[in-house]
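As a warm-up, study this chain.
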Amino acid sequence: MKTLGNSHILGILPCAFYLPLVVSFEKVTIPAELKSVVAKIAVNTTSCSVTCGLGFKLEEMCEITPAGERRNCTLHRSDCLTSWVCGLLLFTIPVGKPFQFSCMTSDAVGFSSRAYSCRWRLAQGLITTNNVLFKPFKNPNSVIRFSPTRESDAGTYRCDVQLLKTFKVIKRVYFGVRVIRSDLVDLNFQKSLTWEQKLAANEVEGNTENSTHEEVQEQQHFWQGELFYECLVGVGSGVIGGILVSMALCFLQKILRRRAAE
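Now compare it with the structure written out below.
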């Protein structure tokens, strides 16, 4: 049975290759109306404005003549979607300070934002991307605001952007919020640097104007702050020490004169 089936297949293959050679095609004539048709196509396009979620791109649309010439070119803005998963973003916020984060970019909000809806879920007190741990979180807008931030606001907020027509998820992003007490950790990194470290950082970044401005501030701080009092104490102690040493030398000199007179 297998030999018979193989023979049928081998017999059909030559017919399949020979049939186009036997059939004679008639010449295709293009109507004169189609020869003068002008097509409008995209000749150039930019990459998507975002790497994940809803974004936009610019397309250059031109009319192409039968001779291949471009004319009446215009820029057209259209939606684009590279990937719908955006991953996890982490924030560390001191207690009592206002803070906010948005599920959609400013470009997406201003560009046909009525066609989308945002659904929020929360894993309170946890920094995670495990979808089993999330519970519904009521927030009608695409922005969550903390005013002020409380310790109970800590957790991971998941936002799903959906199309209103098809309910298709076009973006999912996680916001990890860590809330710390302001009296435990000072988040001002620049404040903890020494003057030399600040100068080296400004040289690396090329901010020469900022470095000169900081030098002036350091000089003002020297004369007005704690450094001035520390220098004043040092100078005063040096003067007092010099006076004591001179008095001791004078006293020793008097003793030596008395012994020489005796």
